[in-house]
């Protein structure tokens, strides 16, 4: 069925044709042979790709870690990477032998439970990834099935060579060669947000020879052969040829439609599949889902090594002693029947007996390595994740999106982050540009307030008279609120409010002619396409960039409506100051000189209805100002001041200028321009630039625009607070360098006065020459030399800077990164980057994002966090220690790949500074305490072993030992890990340097860990030696009976239970009824257990039979013993803590004391003063911007004196 065509051949508009050559203009096929160019695609003949050598990968995509076959081996491998699990697997195996002092079930069951729980969690997380993959793989697209018929087919069934029909607003299912589109000249618009994060629409154009394949029926006999490059990760290049109808047509990136990009503003396109599935460029940029372990968990392995070494040492010592006693003393112990014994006690085989005892000892002392620790950590982390999920402060009501901890493995890592690597579009920004201010004829207009201004005003409002002066000088009014100031409905792209020029009032301004010219330039100097809604008559615009759309919207709202475009003209409805009505005017577009990163400007040559020719130009202020004629600089000084103010407010600015041309001058120049445009060769762009330079001169400045790349709410404040907490923030974006720099200013990552170190090949003439010569070896050599020199110059610049207040920002583009990330140079790049206050990487591919993240993670050895919202951020999110996904408008790919998901960037502050801080301290102290209590308990076994000549006799009943970590000491430690708060959330946010406790790992370093182990050693020694010496030589009961194994074991166990539970009471800073219930309940449960278990018949309760009721409870010495030992065990910790907190307090100790003294309510000035001190000195953020401004004001004041 024929498709309806648009009447205008858009590619022939001056907006698109003036500087874009068509294939027919002389581009010649390139040789596609040799390594890296082996792919052959038979168009419309997918059956030829079902057998080798042309059988390629299917279009099925999988991002899961496991499949049905690999789940058990890979998941088991992941579990037994944990050293403790490996040890307990060894112990469980030995428990099946006669050497075990315990039953096999008591060792195997906990191991199966722990490993099974963790594997189940892994399976659930991977199942979610599988469901996401299935959703994508089962999307449908129309595929040619023969005879000119197209049928809906699942993406996963596509094959290389298939011809597909993709309709408007749908994603491309694979990498396609564009054959034709709904436009007669084969162009289409593509949104690549999922690939590079850019919101700009890209223009793609099919080969001229295939444009006429514009109906389904025409594909019945279509055949062609594509020879091209092999699959690779480069998003911006493509080399190949299409052999069609005996012609060889060269192909480039402009003809390629990449998977996961979306068709926009085009009814349909036809394309043929070149790369499918994991061969597509987006999948080539993806990385395997990693297995992430927190740094604390990895460090736990080393603690396990240490404890296993201790276990091996004491086991070896005990075995040696046992062997010696077996050899020399056993023959004397006639009552042991040494002449009729087993191999375990045979004096004649004492070495074998010692070795067998070593195995028994390794199992017996296994309580030093607590397997229950892993179960407890898993439970605690899941409960912590629940609290994160339920935090209403991170709930976003507009989209009904709460925060989500998608994995609980990394909770504590949130409190240890050193560097944040962030995407820009959709993460920091809202994917929205708004026209907010402008300067016309030296007069500023617009009263809107940006997010940066709000954050700066809030920060300044807390300051001194100097800061108030700064507020006044910046003209910041905290009551201004942008959109809310206008009574009209908000117009997308327009957040401007100023009655002086709105509603036609500009005609009363002193420079009304300049204002009219300014608005005319906005309406005409653009490449947008107007679309009229037939039902409402309203005009909307489709533009290549959102800022360009905001310009035409602003012009429309201010009275100059661009409503129609023809092949050679644009039509406006202008407000006429004489008739006070809107009149229609037509402007012929004679030429368009496009914007690019080198020119940094765009111009149009137009002719009005009177025949007067104008050049309208907009561009970067530095470029425009140097092209002004002498009598065109009337407003230059005032405009520069306004531009500086707009820059401080984080706005993107462009200067606007014009000049009049006479007919003769234009005719002469146009001949030069046409000749340059029609030139075929490597110097074509250079000739076009030279032609443009000839006319873009002698300009008259009219004014400047200020557009806000709309930041998400609270982004500047969030970045400011994160910087004050000591975190470093890098931005990795696919946007152009100019856009990245603008957003850097908007986010306060850059500021006026900050020295920028820009590393790029754009300004390297040698690299450009090598690129034009197409000598790859020379290009690589020259580029490496240039990047090396630029990095060296940047390092030297930092070293030679004498001003300690100077700050540096590193800005590097993707092309430069491709060389800087090579092994020989990446360490130098990292050294330079870490010396800078801010780092912005622009024009980077998804793979480069992942590589930069890997470089920072491995190079610094510190915890990294990556945050993004699109599919192009997945590699970065997976590569970082922690990945955070934004639940944004770009789909759920980033969220599905992330460890944590939030709805807005600003929630990252609370996620890290509050939950991260709490989780880090909870897990760290919990683990240290766990080792403490198990050392306290386990070493009493060793001491008793020594007392009994290492006979293998346990001091405690089997059930005492089995239930120690299950009932009598487990619940308080869970409460510690879930509920402990050293300070409330509000205090964490007011005193952000508290976060540095996690970054510096103050609560899980070796001195801290060993101190807790030493505390356990002391407690175990005090418990055992006090008990054994008190009970050894005296009667225990009224009848004169002495203490036996039953009483000694129960008494020591009671002391251990009291000690470890009261010890946790000394640790806890934040008590609730839950902590009290768990602590006192665990102690009470021990006594209840003794009563119940002791009442069971003796053959089951064994040594516990009636031990409390009949033996211990009636004797005062038991209660005195417990009281004395518990006090003696806790006293060293109490004294050391009291001394340390008095003379060397940590930050949270001081805050706890201040809160206890009610300083936050009784003396708010002191509280605020201490809060201002508790901020990490930083060169980025609103605070740094304010401090720099105050510093400048003070210097200015001193200079005036």
What is this structure's SSE topology?
Blueprint: H1 14-17, E1 39-43, H2 71-79, H3 83-94, H4 105-137, E2 140-146, E3 149-154, E4 163-167, E5 175-181, E6 187-191, H5 193-196, E7 201-205, E8 224-228, E9 240-244, E10 247-251, E11 256-257, E12 262-264, E13 268-275, H6 281-284, H7 295-328, H8 350-364, H9 372-389, E14 404-405, E15 417-422, E16 429-440, E17 443-445, H10 451-460, H11 465-474, H12 512-524, E18 529-532, E19 539-542, H13 546-557, E20 560-565, E21 569-576, E22 581-593, E23 601-607, E24 613-619, H14 621-625, H15 636-648, E25 652-661, H16 663-677, H17 684-695, E26 700-711, H18 715-724, E27 728-732, H19 737-746, E28 755-759, H20 765-773, H21 776-800, E29 808-813, H22 814-820, H23 826-834, E30 838-842, H24 846-860, E31 863-868, H25 874-879, E32 882-886, H26 893-897, E33 900-902, H27 907-947, H28 958-968, H29 970-979, H30 985-990, H31 996-999, H32 1006-1032, H33 1045-1067, H34 1073-1094, H35 1098-1101, H36 1107-1112, H37 1116-1143, H38 1147-1156, H39 1159-1162, H40 1164-1173, H41 1182-1200
Parallel strand pairs: 15-27, 15-31, 27-30, 28-29, 29-30, 31-32, 32-33
Antiparallel strand pairs: 1-8, 2-3, 2-4, 4-13, 5-11, 5-13, 6-7, 6-12, 8-9, 9-10, 14-33, 16-17, 16-26, 18-19, 20-21, 21-22, 22-23, 23-24, 24-25, 25-26
